Amino acid sequence: REMGVGVGPPAVVPDGDAVRGMGWLQERLREIEVFQTLTAEAGNHQQLQRIAEWERRATAQLEARANADRTAVQEEFDESIGVLERLREEDTEQQEEQRREEERQKAEEEERQRKAQEEAERQRREEEEAERQRKLKEEEDARRRAEEEARKKAEEEQQQSQQQQQQQEE
Questions:
Q1: Which of 2, 57, 78, 87 is most exposed, with the fewest beta carbons within 10 Å of its own?
Q2: What is the pLDDT along the chain (170 residues), one digit of tens a residue?
Q3: 145 belongs to a structural domain
Q4: d(CA 29, CA 110)
Q5: Is residue 24 a part of any domain in this protein?
Q6: What's the domain count of the chain?
Q7: Which pLDDT score, from 0 to 100, does residue 116 have?
Q8: C-alpha–C-alpha distance, residues 48 and 54, integer Å
C-alpha cells in the first residue's frame, strides 16, 4: 500500500499477468514478514545484515514489479482513451455526414417544389393564352358573321334596288 499497489480502484481491469503479479507481491510480502520475525529473534549482526540486504533486494524487486504493473495499466488506459477518441471522431463524422444528407434532401425537396410551382404557373399561362385565343376567335367569328350578314343585306338591297329600277323601266 505504501508503494501505491492496491490503493483505489484500478483504471482498467488488470489482465491475468497483473493478477498473477499481485499474488507474487503478496507472497514476497509474507516472506519479508517471516524474515523480519527471524531478524527480531536472531542476535547475529552478520545475519541481520544479510537479511537487511535481502529485504532491500526484495523491496527493489517489488517496486520494479509494481512500477511495471502500473505502466501496463497506464498503457491499457491510454489505449482505451485512444479507442474512445476514435469512436468520438467517427460519431462526429457520422453526424456531419447525416447533416449533409439532410441538407441535400432539403435542397432536393425545395427544387421539386420550385419546379412544381413553375409547372403550375406555366400551365396557368397556357390556359390563359388558350382562353384569350378562344375569345379572339369568337370575336373574329362574330365580326365575320356580322360582315357576311351586312354583305348579304347589302346584296339583297342592291338586288331589290335593281329589281325596282327594272320594274320602273319596264
A1: 2
A2: 344 444 444 444 455 555 556 677 788 788 878 777 766 665 556 666 777 888 899 888 888 888 888 888 889 989 999 999 999 999 999 999 999 999 999 999 999 999 999 999 999 999 999 999 999 999 999 999 999 999 999 888 888 888 888 877 76
A3: no
A4: 76
A5: yes
A6: 1
A7: 96
A8: 10
Task: Report d(CA 140, CA 155) in Å as an integer.
Answer: 22
Cα gap 32→53, rounded to integer Å: 12
Amino acid type, 108: E
Helix axes 45-169, 16-41, angle to 10 degrees: 160
Q: Please give the grid coordinates belonging to residue 76.
A: 491499457
Contact 35, 55 (CB under 8 A): yes
In a domain, 156, yes or no: no
Which residue type is seen at 91? D
| Residue keyed to cell 479507442 | 83
Cβ(58)–Cβ(29) below 8 Å? no
Whether 72 and 19 have beta carbons less than 8 Å apart is answered as no
Rg from Cα positions in the chain: 56
Domain membership of residue 92 as a residue range: 16-114
Whose cell is 516472506? That residue is 31
What amino acid is encoded at 12 in this protein?
V
| Residue 2 contacts residue 63 (beta carbons within 8 Å) | no
Residue 36 in domain: yes
